[in-house]
Amino acid sequence: MVSAGGNQVLVDCGADWRDELERLRPRAIVVTHAHPDHVGGLRRGAPCPVYATAATWETIGRYPLPARETVRPREPFEIGGIRFEAFALEHSLVAPAVAYRITRGGRSLLYAPDVLSISERAAALGGVTLYVGDGASPTRPIVRRRGRTRIGHASIKQQLDWCAAASVSRAAFTHCGSQILRDEEGAGERVRALGAERGVRAELAYDGLRLVLR
After folding, report:
1. What is the pLDDT of residues 105-115, one digit of tens each?
2. Structurally, how many domains does the chain consist of?
3. 214 in a structural domain
4. Which of 5, 90, 97, 183 lies at a CB distance of 3.0 to 4.6 Å from 117, suitable for a disulfide?
C-alpha cells in the first residue's frame, strides 16, 4: 500500500487481500501482472478503479471490474498526486509483468516483486531512494527458458548489484521463497550482509512493515 497526501493506492491484490478491500477502500489498485497471487483478490470485483497493462487485462478480462484503466510501459500516470511509471520485466510468458517506479514529492521507489531482469534498468532505478524487490532466492537466480525467452527470478544478490550500480541506498525484499522461509532469521542476516557489502541498507519485508521516504 502506497500512502501519500491522504491517498492510498494498493499495488497488486492477492487472494489474501480480498476481504480487506471494502475496509481499506484504496483510491485505486495498480497491478504488476496476472499471476493469481497478484490478482486473485480481484475475482469478485473492487471498490475502486484498477490499472493494468493490456496483457494483464487479456487474462483478467472476465473479472467484474467496471472501472478499468490501461497502463502502457514508460507512459507515466498519476493517482491522487502519486506518479506511476511502468517498466517491462522479464519474468513470465503467461503473465507478462511490469515494475512500477512510484514518485511523490521528488522521492521515488521502484517496486518489482517478481523479476528476472528489468527493461531499461538505468532509467527505472536512476534517482530511486528505495527498491522493493523479489525475494525468491538469496544468491542463485531461478532461470528457465521457453524458446529464446528467459523466465524466472533474479537473486537478491543480483538485485543488490543493480541497486549498488544505480546508487540506490535502501532495499527491501518481499515475495520470499522457500530458502528464506525455512530460516527467516538467518536469511535476514544474510540479506543485510549482502547489502552491506554493496553499500545498500537491505532487509526482508514482513507483514506490517512501514517504510517512509523523506
Report:
1. 999 999 999 99
2. 1
3. no
4. 90
* Model confidence at 23: pLDDT above 90: no
Sign, Cα dihedral of 188, 189, 194, 200: positive
Only one residue has cell 527491501, namely 172
* pLDDT tier, 147 (very low <50, low <70, confident <90, very high otherwise): confident
> Which CATH number characterizes residue 102's domain?
3.60.15.10
Distance of alpha carbon 91 from alpha carbon 89, whole angstroms = 6
SS3 15: helix
Lowest mean pLDDT among 36-45, 62-71, 179-188: 179-188
Q: How far apart are CA 92 and CA 115, in angstroms?
A: 9
Residue 212 lies in a domain: no
Q: Does 21 fall in a domain?
A: yes
The answer to whether residue 213 is domain-embedded is no
Residue 188 has pLDDT above 90, yes or no: yes
Calpha distance 207→120 (Å, rounded): 30
Distance CA 79, CA 101 (A): 13
CA dihedral 97, 71, 10, 207 (to 10 degrees): 20
Residues with Cβ within 8 Å of residue 39, at least 6 apart in sequence: 12, 13, 14, 31, 33, 56, 59, 60, 63
